[in-house]
Structure formats: structure tokens, C-alpha cells
Amino acid sequence: MTPGDITIAVTVFDRRDYIEQAVASALAQTFPVRVMVVEDCSPDKSLESFVLSRFGSRITYHRNSLRRGLFDNWNACVQLCPTPWLCLLHDDDFLAPDLVEAMVELAAKMPGKGLYYGRCNYVDSNGRSALVSTAPDGPKWQSADVVSVALFNPVRFPGELFRADYTRALGGFCPTSQFSGDWDMWFKLSLNYGAAWTNRVVGNSRSHKAEGRGTVRVERNGKYQGLIAMQAKKNSALLRQRGVEVFYNRAAALKAYPVPTRFLLEYASGFSHRMLAYNVGQLLASRPVHAGYLLFQTLARCLGPGFVSAASKLYNTCKRTV
Q: First vs last Cα of the chain: how many Å apart?
């Protein structure tokens, strides 16, 4: 792998407030690479001229003729990619200046993989660092364990680099996925071609509650936990077809990753009855991480889903008045 083998694709819809920082971070790599912007038929008709007026010939710009949606716009990036390797950069995230340097280093240490990834900072809407994603135990560079990738998505945007031709061979990202189309592809690449990670921090993932974000919509309708479980089960089934006896264990998953009470407080009041019951069931099966969690769990167990919905309404009412 050399920098000339790499393209960074900035995926764009309507986040004009952040896009300059995203594109600038792709252009400011210590190892310069090709940069393209792929706009998914934005309602902002002047977005293309806005981006080109700031970056000009340093980038290529493509606008889809029809709206393709999040995951199918990634397929557009794969189709347009002129190089073997591709990094997807969301328009509200931004890269560390040494992402490409770190990926070239990683590929030299762990050659022949279809997917490479590193760690990311989580930042708020203003770009201030909140925390750094957890690095697995072990050396600085390590091959990914495909069983672990099947049960938990280790790849955080924008810290990934993958083979475009391998992705095309696997059929591309699932365009109808509601949430886990990225994890689905990372697992398939890991299973068929191998993956490796570095513990270097290579990107900044912005956490904010913008209405247009697909993850926010999934959280608000209560499908977040269910979609994660469904993808883990799907991945496990593919492994079993290869002779690896792996089964998704909900109890073990909720022990390792308990349902966040903040998630329920923010969104449960808007859940359907079915999704409320499902998420409360997940809460009751989770490992209590502190005394407050155990108290919330106990009240939900005694008072039922109605308590969680009422607590969510009260939480949001108080938040609006602060």
C-alpha cells in the first residue's frame, strides 16, 4: 500500500456547518491522497458551489442524480473510487492528520488484509474531545479476531480503510439497512479477506443529536438494541456456515454492554408499546454498573414499562426547562 493507492471520500447530504472541516482534514494528511466529495442529492442546491469555492481543483465532486440514502451513497463512493483503497469520511466528522500514515504503517506490519482500522476520538458538536474509543489489549498492531468482529462492531468512523474491489465483490453495502450496514460489511471483509487494527488515534467522530442522523432516528424509535442483536446473530450464522460454532449470547452481550439508562431516559417516552417492552426487557437483563443503575432497574422490574416511559417524559420535561 502507498498513499497513491488511497482515496478519501467525504459523504455529504446537508451538513454545511461541518463539511469544510471534514474536507480540510482529508486534504491535510501528512501523506497526501486523492479526495472526492460524494453528495447524496442534497436539498441544498448551492452545496456543490460552496464546497468547490473553498477547495477547487484539490478535490473531485460528484452529485447523485437521485437520493440514494446513507449506505447506498457509500456504494456510490465504492463505484467511483479510482484507487484500490477507500476511506469513508462523514461530513460531520474529521480525520487526524496522520490517518493515511497510520494505515500505510499498519498495512506494512499486517499485509494482505481487506480492512484496516484505528481508534477515534469522540467529540461534541463543537469539536471538543469527549473521550477516546477503547483499544483492545495487545500490541500496537494486531490482526482482528473474526469471532469478536462478528459479535461486536470494533470499527469507528472515520478510522477505517478498506479495499474497494473486495467490497464490490461482496455485493457492496446493504442499501436497505436501517443501522448496521457498516458492521455487516466490516464483518464480511474480515471473514473473507482478514482485518487488522492499530491503537493509533486516527479520526474524530462527532456525537450530536441532529434530526437528520440515521442513528438518532433508530434510537428514537427504540430499534437500536434489536438491530445490534439481529446483526450479531446474522454474523454468527455466517461463521457457523464456515464451521465455526459461534452463537450470539444475549446475556453475555448485556453483561458486557448494558443498555444505557440515558438512552432510555432520552427516548423511551416515544417508543411504541412493543419497542418499550423490548427495551425494558433488555434493561432488566443487563448487568447493573452502579447503584443508580440497579435502583432504576429495580423500579422498572416492580413498576413495569410504564415507569420507564414516565421517567423518560419527566426527564425530557426537566431538560427542556433547564
A: 52
Q: Is the pLDDT of residue 312 over 70?
A: yes
Same domain, 207 and 162: yes
Nearest to 22 by CA among 87, 77, 86, 93: 93
* DSSP E strands, 29-93: 34-39, 60-63, 85-90
Is residue 251 within a helix (H) or strand (E), and if so which, with residue range? helix 250-256
- Is residue 106 packed enough to be buried (19+ CB in 10 Å), middle (13-18) or exposed (0-12)? buried
pLDDT in tens, 250-288: 898 899 889 999 999 999 999 999 999 999 999 999 999
Q: How many CB atoms lie within 10 A of CB 180?
A: 22
138 pLDDT above the threshold of 70 = no
Q: Would you state the cell numbers that stand for residue 135, as one nine-digit string?
A: 483499544
Number of domains in the chain: 2
Question: In Å, how far are 60, 108, 118, 187, 196 from 104, measured between CA atoms?
Answer: 23, 6, 12, 21, 12
Sign of CA dihedral 177, 182, 183, 187: positive
Q: pTM here?
A: 0.90
- 309 and 164, same domain (yes or no): no
> What is the predicted pLDDT for the residue at 52?
96
* pLDDT for 134: 58
**228 and 79 part of one domain:** no
Give the span between the Cα atoms of 194 and 16, in whole angstroms. Answer: 36
What pLDDT, on a 0 to 100 scale, did the predictor assign at position 9? 98
183 and 263 part of one domain: no
Return d(Cα 187, Cα 44) in angstroms, integer.
Answer: 34
Q: Which three cell numbers stand for residue 263?
A: 438512552
Q: H or E stretch including 203?
A: strand 195-206
From the list 56, 35, 39, 57, the residue with the least C-alpha distance to 47 is 39
Helices H / strands E in the chain, number of each: 14, 10
β-sheet bridge partners, residue 163: 85
What DSSP state is assigned to residue 156? -
